[in-house]
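Table S2 (continued). Query chain:
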Amino acid sequence: MIKSMNLFCKLLSPMVVATATIVMALVSGCSASDGTGQPSLSSQKKEHKTELISEGPNRAQYDNYVPRGAERITYESDGMKLTAWLMKPTVKGKRPALVYAHGGDALGAGDVDDARAFVNSGFIVMLPAWRGENGNPGNYEMCYGEVDDAVAAVNYLAERKDVDPSLIFGVGHSIGGTTMLLAAECTDKLAKVAACGALTDMTGLYDNYPNEPFEQNRLEKSLRSAKEHVVNLTCPVLLTYGVRDPGDRSMARKADKFKKLGEKHGKEIEIIRHEEADHFSNLQASIPVIVTFLTSR
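Corresponding output:
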């Protein structure tokens, strides 16, 4: 029977093979289950190589000049050495730390400006550039391989001698918020995550970011949708939206469904709507709230 199944899988498309693998895991009682009988997001990602429409880096322009107050470091993800910037407070000893996931298509000096408030609050802050951007190796995958990179960044911080490994957090804006939210479903090393303008569900017909590099099918969208894997969420989450922006209003409604579903599984999810902010000004409006969220016990 096993030989017959292997022969059958060889005849299937890569997407169907990945789907068949997931179904077989369900039937066999996969040890990487999320507790509901469904394989966890991390185990599904290990089984499925994303189907890209075209391979290559993100085409966004970037400047790798290291801004004042940051230092260039490298971290490893999937065997690739990737660039990141690190910012440290003047306080000595083991510190809380966070991964700051940038919005847009490349890491830039503006991200360092946004992260200074966290450094001033005593956090060591790591700002990773993902695979396929800022000159890093790898393909641009949009919230897929980048999630693995975010988890790798968390692991990097956990191994630093100046970081308290029990106090590692994730913060992200826009697509970076989406990436960190998915990372919180793939690692148990995050104490809390805060995301500004994150997209919790990409499964609808037009529910993803523009210029998506991946095939538009149910499996690809599901593996990029935090709502589909909320049972895997490992820490409390704060989501904020600038609802003067129609796009953020729509995403906030999706977040309401994410929260409702999460609460059924005992997940701690808070949503804040900033009525006078749009998608971009919401970040600045949210930073003081996020600092309070991260530092509260």
